[in-house]
Amino acid sequence: MKIREITSYLESLAPSMYQESYDNSGLIVGDPNSKVKGILICLDSIESIVDEAIDKGCNMVIAHHPIVFRGLKRFNGRNYVERTVMKAIKHDIAIYAIHTNLDNVRMGVNKRIADRIGLEKTRILSPKNDLKKLTVMLPIEKVDDAKTALFKAGAGQSSDNTKISYSTVGAITHNEVAAPKIKLEMLYPIHKKSQILSALSQVMQGSDFTYDTSDIYVKDNTVGSGMIGELPKAMKAEKFLKYLKKSMGVNCIRYTQLLDKEIKKVAVCGGSGGFLLRTAIAKKADIFITADYKYHEFFDADGRIVIADIGHYESEQYTIDLLYEILSDKFSNFAILKTSINTNPVNYL
């Protein structure tokens, strides 16, 4: 079994096209054609995790958070990111991250949170609608090369990771001379526009072509940010917070003023979910559970909702179990292990 077979399976469940524009999910370190000897699953692929992988005979680390978010210009061990990458390369250990693409799918991180606290009637809190359509007129002999380049750049990917394009045979007439052309159409994520157009330009160097980009409305209720659902039975706010603390195994919950009503409808977002507060309010959630709230942001609750900040690591810690279950159900010919290291950089006294 090769590394690329593992990553392809994971991306069939959480396609890379669903990651956010700032993210760096995917194979960060390693040869995709290397044989898998063992997998270690973690939340943060820091140096101690690489050490653990070495000790346990695993040559692949699957993490939720990418160890590299921005380009590295030097590798001299001056910080934890460089040290981790250097050690992984030295010991031939692959590092793969499945981050916001796993956040944004129906069976992902937020569903696991919802399940932990017993929510019913769950649905995506903020469904994605960020696709555009590329239409380009091409000479027939350029179509195959254009498709290959555009697929590689991120166009034409469906939710099940298959490649989709639409072609129409026609002709452009100029001075009564008809030149056969193919109209090629593909969907692509908005944040990949520059890569898409760059790939198209490289294929068409020296050839005339025309293209157009247009908005397209695709509302996929199985893809998007956060999750909202309902408790089987409404609970008093203080009682729910105690229940939440126990259910999520957290040491501390920071929360806003409790309102004079019970908790029934609950919105959640693993990690930094503050950007979804307005959506949670608009959908009449009684409480919004997330992490990484700053002091002044708590005022945004404004008596309309309760904000409960349970901590970043704490909100996503059960992602390790999720990935373990996904991989264990599919693969059985090598060791799949969960880390024994708590990588949370935040301590509580």
Report on this model:
By secondary structure, this protein is of the alpha/beta class. The chain has 3 domains: about 5-100 and about 320-340, 3-Layer(aba) Sandwich (Udp-n-acetylmuramoylalanyl-d-glutamate--2,6- Diaminopimelate Ligase, Chain: A, domain 1), CATH 3.40.1390.30; about 110-125 and about 225-310, 3-Layer(aba) Sandwich (Udp-n-acetylmuramoylalanyl-d-glutamate--2,6- Diaminopimelate Ligase, Chain: A, domain 1); about 130-220, Alpha-Beta Plaits, CATH 3.30.70. The chain contains 11 helices and 15 strands. It has helices at about 5-15, 45-55, 80-90, 100-105, 110-115, 145-155, 195-205, 235-250, 275-280, 310-315, 320-330; strands at about 25-30, 40-45, 60-65, 95, 120-130, 130-140, 165-175, 175-190, 210-215, 220-235, 255, 265-270, 285-290, 305-310, 335-340. Helix 3 links the parallel strand 3 and strand 4.
Please write out the topology.
Blueprint: H1 3-13, E1 26-29, E2 38-44, H2 47-55, E3 60-65, H3 80-90, E4 94-97, H4 100-103, H5 109-116, E5 120-128, E6 131-138, H6 143-153, E7 166-174, E8 177-189, H7 193-203, E9 210-215, E10 220-235, H8 237-248, E11 254-255, E12 263-272, H9 277-282, E13 287-291, E14 306-309, H10 312-316, H11 319-330, E15 335-338
Parallel strand pairs: 2-3, 2-15, 3-4, 12-13, 13-14
Antiparallel strand pairs: 1-4, 5-10, 6-8, 6-9, 7-8, 10-12, 11-14
Helix pairs in contact: 2-3, 6-7
